[in-house]
Design a protein that fits this description.
It is built from eleven helices and eleven strands. The relative contact order is 0.17. The protein is 43% helix and 19% strand. By secondary structure, the protein is α/β, with parallel strands linked by helices. β10 and β11 form a beta hairpin. Bound molecules: 6-O-phosphono-beta-D-fructofuranose (F6P). The site of 6-O-phosphono-beta-D-fructofuranose has 10 residues, from loops. 6-O-phosphono-beta-D-fructofuranose binds next to loops.
Length: 319
């Protein structure tokens, strides 16, 4: 029986290094690796092929995923999951690794209840919201991209003495915004997890502006849906001309960081070993610098919360 790898949901940096480690390690273990192309959509359409060493040559430094990914609506229907299972069986695949986020693991959870399939989900989402995991593939690269953007924006912001509101990604989670605001020293950070105290911010920033502050850097998470409101608030209350920038999908691309590459390799080695050792339906997580497996049932419908210490630090900084 064979083992396959696929991506699902939004792409994230670290997927390609993970795919490379998967192929290399499977051959080392004398296992036959397969690729499932285009996520669950490709699984339904039988886009499955044996993976060769040459497929993964020269991909370590690439963002995105060479095997493509998708958000599949069809996978929510039983008849298509049945088709997906039959396609796996037709290739003698009984073990899969899925690189993805919460939506993908939700799909896997349903699949696991219906069919005899062993799998490990590897957290791969820049949102960093996988329950039980401190980190997901793509997060480190995204944070570094945001850091460079904020450094650049600060240069111009300081020169032209304006305020900038920078929106980071994160569907419902403010992790990227929180870490970026702390590490880039933003004056304002708005995320869905905490209620911003606008009154005290107004007092503090007005005072700073009176005493010579010349620009303001605000980081806002996509998930807070407050980007436009924040632009109006800064210009109306603080009387400083304000621009906004949505960083968008730039945060998902680019060259995977060293950390991402190392973590991709670790995630894959542990996951392949687990699948070769026993039947499992789990997600591998990285918690307190250790890897562990959590049963898919325990992950389902749960979201990771931002660490309390990070929220406290952010609270102090932006008050
Ligand atoms: O889940 C990752 C993510 O990049 C979110 O931060 C964002 O809300 C969403 O995907 C964007 O999705 P899409 O690429 O489908 O527009």
């Amino acid at each position: 029986m064979a083992i396959a790898i696929m991506c699902s949901g939004g792409d994230s940096c670290g997927m390609n290094p993970a795919i490379k480690s998967f192929v290399d390690y499977c051959y080392e273990k004398q296992e036959e690796p397969y690729f499932i192309y285009e996520g669950f959509e490709g699984l339904i359409d039988n886009k499955i092929k044996k993976a060769k060493h040459k497929d993964v040559a020269g991909i370590l430094h690439l963002g995105g995923t060479i095997i493509k990914t998708s958000r599949s609506k069809r996978f929510f229907e039983k008849k298509y999951r049945q088709k997906a299972y039959e396609n796996l069986k037709s290739h003698d695949i009984d073990k899969i690794i899925v690189l993805g986020g919460n939506g993908s693991f939700e799909g896997l959870h349903v699949f696991a209840q219906e069919f005899e399939i062993s799998f490990v989900g590897i957290p791969a989402t820049i949102d960093n919201d996988i329950y039980g995991s401190d980190y997901a593939l793509g997060v480190d690269t995204a944070l570094n991209i945001i850091k460079s953007a904020l450094d650049d924006i600060r240069d111009t912001s300081a020169s032209i003495r304006k305020a900038f509101v920078v929106e980071t990604m994160g569907r419902d989670c403010g992790y990227l915004a929180a870490i970026s605001a702390i590490t880039s020293g933003a004056e304002i950070c708005v995320i869905p997890e905490i209620k911003t105290d606008f009154d005290s911010l107004e007092k503090k920033l007005k005072d700073e502006l009176k005493h010579g502050r010349e620009y303001i850097l605000a980081v806002v998470s996509e998930g807070s849906k407050q980007t436009n409101d924040l632009v109006s608030w800064i210009s109306n209350k603080l009387k400083i001309e304000t621009r906004s920038i949505v960083l968008g999908h730039i945060q998902r691309g680019g060259n995977p960081t060293v950390f991402e590459r190392l973590m991709a390799n670790e995630f894959v080695i542990y996951s392949v070993d687990k699948l070769l050792e026993e039947k499992t339906q789990s997600v591998i997580v990285y918690k307190n610098s250790k890897f562990k497996f959590i049963d898919i049932k325990k992950i389902s419908n749960k979201k990771q919360k931002i660490n309390k210490k990070i929220l406290e630090q952010l609270g102090k900084m932006t008050k």
